[in-house]
Fold:
Amino acid sequence: MPIYLERNTMRIKRFYLIAIVAFFTQFVNAQEGLPIYTDYLTDNYYLIHPSMAGAANCAKIRMTGRQQWFGHENAPKLLTISANGRIGESNSGIGAMFYTDKNGYHSQTGGYITYAHHILFSRNEIDLNMLSFGLSVGAIQYKLDETEFLNELPDRLISGIEQSSTNFNIDFGFSYHLYNFYAHATVKNILKNEGINNDLEITSNLRRYMLSAGYVFGKFGSEWSYEPSIMYQYRDATKESSIDINAKVYKEMDFGKLWAGLSYRRSFDGAEYFDNGSVSSQKLQLISPLVGINFDQFMFAYTYAYQANSIVFNNGGFHQITLGFNFNCRKERYHCNCPAVN
Structure:
């Protein structure tokens, strides 16, 4: 009897280990490349659209830290730092960004450099009518730590070492600003990668298409302005897509600006799971309120994201803090409600 129980226990452990590996493998596939959260809403569109490098009147530095599932070991963590600005008085801009993303046994570190060019169609700089193109070139190092996978049971599918791979890729996109209206389109990870699992299409093709647009409403001379926006993204390998519906409000102050917003992300693709013997499905839903302040040349923002699904890994939310600094600022040139540019 004890031998039978021991064998069953070993089988359960083996099944549990395989389930964990499969879970993290799926998470790795979903997270390769810079994760797309709501960072862009904290005055950081350059993070996802290379064409925004140098588009604003100020050069910008932004640093974001994101922590998920407080209290859980090896919970996902993301840190990004970026800087972008104009090249002198020219119509060109440059930028650079670095990030590190850790998710359980998987981690990645990446860096990009960007060149953007801005074409002004208006007769003067008072009226904003600008088309921008941007190209980012970068490298990403992926790591998968399997050293702890063999503590209990040997498995031929697990190497027991820290696997790593470094790949190069490029992003390309454009932006268009017309008075208070803006639109962006970007293709990320255009090149094919070999990834850690180079035999899987899902890891070699990381191409992602992103579209976003918005408009800022506000009466002339008013201290208040309102900005509804949307963002759509589509991943080529998995055919997954989602949409962000966002709303922000701004209040001009003597010291700078206060703002707050709300973002709702909805996936168009569902995940199936067993519920009392039957198969059910749910689609990802994220609700993210955010608040921020611009004080002189400094910026601070806090974002909280909550997954509004019935089946979740943890009921806790995701916390994100963004710090920013503007420098080499020029006088606001355009007569428009366009916070991303003016």
